[in-house]
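User: My collaborator sent over this chain with a note saying "see what the structure looks like." That's all I know about it. Can you take a look?
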Amino acid sequence: MIGNNELLERAEVYGNWYGVPGDEVKKALDKGQDVMVKVDVQGAETIKKALPQAILIFLMPPSIEELFMRLKKRHTESAADLDLRLKTAEKEIEQLPIFDYTVINRWDKIDLAVSEIQAIITAEKCRVNPRKITL
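Assistant: Without extra context I'll predict from the sequence alone. Here is the result:
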C-alpha cells in the first residue's frame, strides 16, 4: 500500500508501522459518513495537510505524571521504553495548537471523554457553514 501511495498517512511508531487506507476513508466520505481515525501527532499533521478541513481532536491524559502511572501499571515497557514514551508525549502535547479540540482522558472516566467527543461531533454538524471534507 505504501508503494502504491494508497495510504492517507503512515508512520512507524515504536518499531511498528501504522497507516490509514485512503480508499476506505474516501468511500465513507463519499457516502456522507463520518470518519474517525486514531493517529499520533505526526499522522494528524499529515492528514491535516491532505485534508485541511479535517477536524482534529487531541486526546490527552490529565498530566504527564498520570500517564507515567498508567504506563507503569501496564508492565509492558522497559524503563527505557517508558522514558521514551513520556518524552514523546511531552513533545506531542507541545503540538496541541495544530488541533481543533482537546479532550482529557481521565482515569475511570472514559464515558466523559466519549461524551465530549460526541459533543464535538454534534457541534460540528450544527455549524452554520459546515466543513465539507472530501478526499
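A starting point for your reply to your collaborator: Residues 76 and 82 are 9 Å apart (CA to CA).
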